[in-house]
């Protein structure tokens, strides 16, 4: 490539990267500013005086357990919310992945009526916006007496992540040659051994890709958490941090520090799993 | 000592009848090839013997043991797949030893056996590699190693050489034959390549449309084809099949009488089969020859194929020395070798023994 073409390309890519990254950088910067600097005009791009006050308040500002009752600052709930988010995203991911993997395997390996239609109907279901079924689902949760429980959120997230996980695993298993399973059967392995020792290791990149998808969707969800939950102790992070708005003022430092801490687990996960994610979306390239 | 007996075996996929009441006996310790065009049912037969397909009807026995109700793992067979089907996430050593592993063989014993097989196959240095890091020929050896390590009663091979390049295929043909002679394990080998069938087998089973056409040694299926299908399928270039008329004790082809006598009871219309190697080109007018015109001449290395048109749409190929010169449209004559003629009944397709 000619130098000037490369320069233009890098300039364009740099600009796009900046636009994409700016909100995150701004959040980090704001979370580190003292309160008076947050509202200063003109704003400072990087804090003049760095303070970790917001982080200290969120992480070590005392827990609900030590000071129960009304009048507890919302920031005291932060770790509880964080825990809730982990429970519901990990829980729903485990269910989604287990069901999707087994279902996709049977859809590619056994013959039964409607076998071809299932994955397509599932992906069609995924295309329906969740706003449409969140209220019917809420009413169902009410009749099951599950509202305001983490379990209701887990079920809700399974409903939105399962179809796509199923589709992804289905596409993945279709690329796994059936001969390797037959070879294992001839070698004397049982069906279960074949699945555990031959199929699952081959499907691992697909499972990782589907897990990351499911984790991100349930970790970032706001809608279900907002509709299904109401007590402070049970909120997921996304809904909980909205309590840093209290009608009269917004605690921007807490808000931004929460955002940064919220982004962290997913960012770390992504860093570790990136390689597998690419392999997962390149499903079918496993012929050995 | 395990012979394989297949009795009345049928397989249908819906209305598609792949195997039709097939009978076959594979003698113990022999190398038997199932040969036929694609779709003839040979792979299905092999997969049924392996237990990977269920029979619609009929039974399969290994020696005295009826096996068609057993799962593949309990038949004590080993199979080499066309795609090799190596386990992609396991290294070569575990690939070879997996059959022992699932049978609970002690670790030390397993290592010894895997090592011994790897040594024979000259892949000792590859034991820690993954299948992805191997060449086609090396994968082939690992697949063979996986089959050999368990000392199975029967080897089943489904076109194991078809993914190799021509040169390696020729080498592996010889090696497979050597392994069979050394191990003496009953082997059933599926191929559509008649060269493999002819060079490696003790017995060739020629199949077409789910039916066994002929079972015989390579010499028999080549020298005494039982019917028109076998005659046309075995041999390169294929046998000339020429309509002829048998009347009043004389056989005539394209209006020319040939000094050949057919056995009593031969029908009036017959099909004469003669291999291109058994046809000589002679000057027009030679006694006992059929006149014609050179249609096309093809050089195939040390030989030359000359196609002679005897009558419209009736052409006969002769394989002659490359030094034999012929030009298109030359008037020549062909003389089939009377000792190497095959006669078939066009109504049944069966050979008329002479």
From TrEMBL, chain A:
Transmembrane segments: 7-28, 81-105, 117-138, 150-173, 194-219, 252-272
Record carries keyword Zinc-finger: no
Compartments where found: Cell membrane
Residue ranges occupied by any ABC transmembrane type-1 domain in the UniProt entry: 82-273
Keyword entries, A-Z: Cell membrane, Membrane, Transmembrane, Transmembrane helix, Transport
Matching PANTHER family: INNER MEMBRANE ABC TRANSPORTER PERMEASE PROTEIN YCJP, MALTOSE TRANSPORT SYSTEM PERMEASE-RELATED
Family according to the record: Belongs to the binding-protein-dependent transport system permease family.
Record protein name field: Carbohydrate ABC transporter permease
Organism annotation: Neoroseomonas terrae
From TrEMBL, chain B:
Protein name per its UniProtKB record: ABC transporter ATP-binding protein
Domain ABC transporter: residue ranges: 4-234
Keyword ATP-binding set for record: yes
Molecular-function annotations in GO: ATP binding
Keyword Nucleus: no
InterPro entries in UniProt: AAA+_ATPase, ABC_transporter-like_ATP-bd, ABC_transporter-like_CS, ABC_transpr_MalK-like, ABC_transpr_MalK/UgpC-like, Mo/tungstate-bd_C_term_dom, NA-bd_OB-fold, P-loop_NTPase
Family indicated by similarity: Belongs to the ABC transporter superfamily.
Organism of derivation: Neoroseomonas terrae
Keywords (A to Z) from UniProt: ATP-binding, Cell membrane, Membrane, Nucleotide-binding, Translocase, Transport
Entry superkingdom: Bacteria
Pfam families with a match to the protein in the record: ABC_tran, TOBE_2
Database matches in SMART domains: AAA
């Amino acid at each position: 490539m000619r130098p000037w073409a490369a320069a233009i390309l890098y300039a364009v890519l740099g600009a796009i990267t900046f636009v994409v990254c700016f909100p995150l950088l701004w959040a980090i910067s704001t979370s580190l500013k003292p309160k008076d600097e947050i509202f200063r005009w003109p704003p400072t791009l990087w804090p003049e005086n760095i303070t970790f006050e917001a982080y200290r308040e969120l992480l070590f500002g005392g827990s609900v357990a030590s000071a129960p009752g009304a009048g507890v600052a919302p920031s005291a709930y932060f770790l509880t919310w964080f825990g809730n988010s982990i429970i519901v995203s990990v829980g729903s991911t485990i269910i989604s992945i287990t069901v999707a993997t087994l279902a996709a395997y049977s859809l590619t390996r056994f013959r039964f009526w409607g076998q071809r239609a299932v994955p397509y109907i599932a992906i069609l279901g995924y295309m329906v916006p969740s706003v449409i079924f969140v209220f019917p689902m809420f009413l169902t949760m009410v009749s099951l007496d599950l509202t305001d429980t983490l379990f209701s959120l887990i079920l809700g997230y399974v409903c939105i992540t399962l179809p796509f996980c199923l589709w992804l695993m289905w596409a993945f298993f279709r690329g796994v040659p059936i001969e390797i399973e037959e070879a294992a059967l001839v070698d004397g392995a049982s069906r279960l051994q074949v699945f555990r020792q031959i199929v699952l290791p081959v499907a691992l990149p697909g499972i990782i890709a589907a897990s990351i998808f499911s984790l991100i969707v349930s970790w970032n969800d706001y809608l279900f958490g907002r509709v299904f939950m109401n007590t402070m102790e049970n909120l997921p992070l996304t809904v909980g941090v909205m309590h840093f708005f209290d009608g009269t003022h917004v605690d921007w430092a807490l808000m931004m520090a929460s955002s940064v801490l919220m982004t962290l687990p997913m960012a770390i996960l992504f860093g570790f799993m990136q390689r597998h994610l690419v392999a997962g979306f390149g499903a079918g390239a496993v012929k050995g | 000592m395990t012979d394989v007996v297949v009795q009345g075996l049928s397989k249908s996929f819906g209305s598609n009848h792949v195997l039709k009441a097939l009978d076959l006996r594979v003698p113990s310790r022999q190398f038997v090839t199932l040969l036929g065009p694609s779709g003839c049912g040979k792979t299905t037969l092999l997969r049924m013997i392996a237990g990977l397909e269920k029979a619609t009807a009929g039974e399969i026995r290994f020696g005295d043991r009826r096996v068609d109700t057993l799962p593949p793992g309990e038949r004590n067979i080993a199979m080499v797949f066309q795609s090799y089907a190596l386990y992609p996430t396991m290294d070569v050593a575990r690939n070879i030893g997996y059959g022992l592993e699932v049978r609970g063989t002690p670790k030390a014993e397993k290592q010894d056996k895997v090592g011994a097989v790897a040594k024979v196959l000259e892949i000792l240095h590859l034991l820690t590699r993954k299948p992805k890091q191997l060449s086609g020929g090396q994968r082939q050896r690992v697949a063979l190693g996986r089959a050999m390590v368990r000392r199975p009663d029967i080897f089943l091979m489904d076109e194991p050489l078809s993914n190799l390049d021509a040169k390696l295929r020729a080498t592996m043909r010889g090696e497979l034959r050597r392994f069979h002679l050394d191990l003496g394990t009953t082997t059933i080998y599926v191929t559509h390549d008649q060269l493999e069938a002819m060079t490696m087998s003790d017995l060739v089973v020629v199949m077409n449309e789910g039916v066994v056409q002929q079972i015989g040694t390579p010499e028999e299926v080549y020298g005494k084809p039982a019917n028109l299908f076998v005659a046309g399928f075995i041999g390169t270039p294929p046998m000339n099949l020429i309509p002829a008329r048998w009347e009043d004790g004389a056989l005539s082809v394209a209006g020319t009488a040939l000094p050949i006598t057919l056995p009593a009871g031969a029908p009036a219309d017959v099909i004469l089969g003669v291999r291109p190697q058994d046809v000589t080109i002679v000057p027009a007018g030679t006694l006992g020859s059929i006149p014609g015109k050179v249609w096309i001449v093809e050089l195939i290395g040390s030989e030359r194929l000359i196609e002679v048109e005897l009558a419209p749409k009736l052409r006969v190929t002769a394989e002659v020395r490359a030094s034999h010169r012929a030009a298109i449209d030359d008037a020549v004559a062909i003389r089939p070798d009377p000792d190497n003629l095959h006669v078939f009944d066009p109504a049944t397709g069966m050979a008329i023994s002479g």
